[in-house]
Amino acid sequence: MIYRAQLARAEALLAGLLDTAGPADAAVSRYFRAHRNLGQQDRAFVAETVYAVLRRRRSLEAAAQSAAPRDLAIAALVRVRGLSGRALEDVVREDEQALVARVRAARSETFPAAVRADLPDWLWERLAALHGEDEAMRIAQGLLNPAPLDLRVNLAKLGRDEALVQLRAAGIEGAPTTYSPACIRLVGKPAINRHPLFQQGAIEVQDEGSQVLAYLLAPRRGEMIADFCAGAGGKTLALAMLMRGTGRIYAMDVSARRLAELVPRAARAGVTNVHPLVLSGDGDARAKRLAGKLDRVLVDAPCSGFGTLRRNPDLKWRHGAQAIAELAVKQGAILRAAARLLKPGGRLVYATCSILPEENEAIADAFAAAHAEFAPASCQELLAAQRIALDCGERLRLWPHRHGCDGFFAAAFERR
Asked: Going by C-beta distance under 8 Å and a sequence separation of 6 or more, which residues neighbour residue 399?
């Protein structure tokens, strides 16, 4: 049962979101903190409606022939959530019945390709030029589907099969995934942070593609490594799991706020070999002291995030072509700075959650051309050594519509 008040809340949140350039997840969190009286059902309705509009904004605008937040919310209820005119009779105003009928009558096949793909024109044209229209549409459709909830089992604490048993005992259904040996994909979106396994640090929420990057770096026990753009530390903790508490991991980032989130997560997981390091920039003095000393370095560079549009659909409306060019400059500088930390024989992995070659192959190619001391390594062979069968060739490419995880790119190098 949907109520007028729920629609009004979704409209109010959308009104702020569609006119600002801030992250949608932060805006939704702020809204719920300001309306703590909302029940679980109300919160679910508001969040699902808002994200449906952000995912399919262009096609909803075309169907509604309007960009008004309330009209888009109603269009999402009809076209995305499949509600009938009768189900909406007590929700919409009498003068909005024509809108409902118009949205129901709209035919997607009459929309331009970029509108059907629910992408900005420039991004659709870029994907179509790279992959052809048919594959570009498959990519776009894969990015429109809501992402599943993936867990990384902390294999230093228990096995994946045992984790599945304990989850099922609590009524939480899931299954092993194809690529990461530590990943479980859940059915639905249960409140996993209330489960004892989460509270004990035996499981973490992490997309399977993100987990694969840790296996690509494949740190050995006792090594010194760096997660150069660690953020809140999801990959840092996956690397710590592979090292079984030995060696030393430098979790580096320019954001002290994000790194601070790693501290309680590491404590919950029982990880003691992680050393957070807030960087002042590419020439940070403390990072310079580690030059030529580390065995492995992961650079999960800041990027457009277009590979995560299933989770963050607002990114496609917030980042334009100019922003991508600016990010590419930053990515190249970060990769060069991180490479200095590696000692001879060490492994460097450059990765993004982008789907654009300007942020991926172009950065890796430029680095390889300018640094003869770094030899490219085959991602497929490196993963095979970790017993992960992934037909990707020299560089890793993961796609939602092919692999079921977020979109990722990775290139690996070894210092001669």
From this structure: 139, 142, 355, 407
pTM equals: 0.95
Residue 42 near residue 6, CB atoms below 8 Å: yes
Asked whether residue 18 falls in the same domain as residue 69, the answer is yes
Indicate whether 395 and 261 sit together in one domain.
yes
Pair 262, 233: CB distance under 8 Å: yes
Above pLDDT 70, what percent of the chain?
A: 100
Catalytic residue list: 353
Assess contact for 329 and 360: CB atoms under 8 A. Answer: no
The terminus-to-terminus CA distance of the chain in angstroms comes to 64
Tokens of 232: 């809140």
pLDDT of residue 284: 83
Which is nearest to 335 in space by CA: 311, 310, 370? 370
pLDDT in tens, 90-113: 888 988 999 999 999 999 999 999
Backbone angles phi, psi at 292, to 5 degrees: 75, 15
Contact 85, 97 (CB under 8 A): yes
Which domain range does residue 181 map to?
A: 150-205
Q: Specify whether 180 is located in the same domain as 220.
A: no
Encode pLDDT of 212-239 as tens digits.
999 999 999 999 999 999 999 999 999 9
> What pairs with residue 252 in β-bridges?
277
Determine the residue type at 192.
I
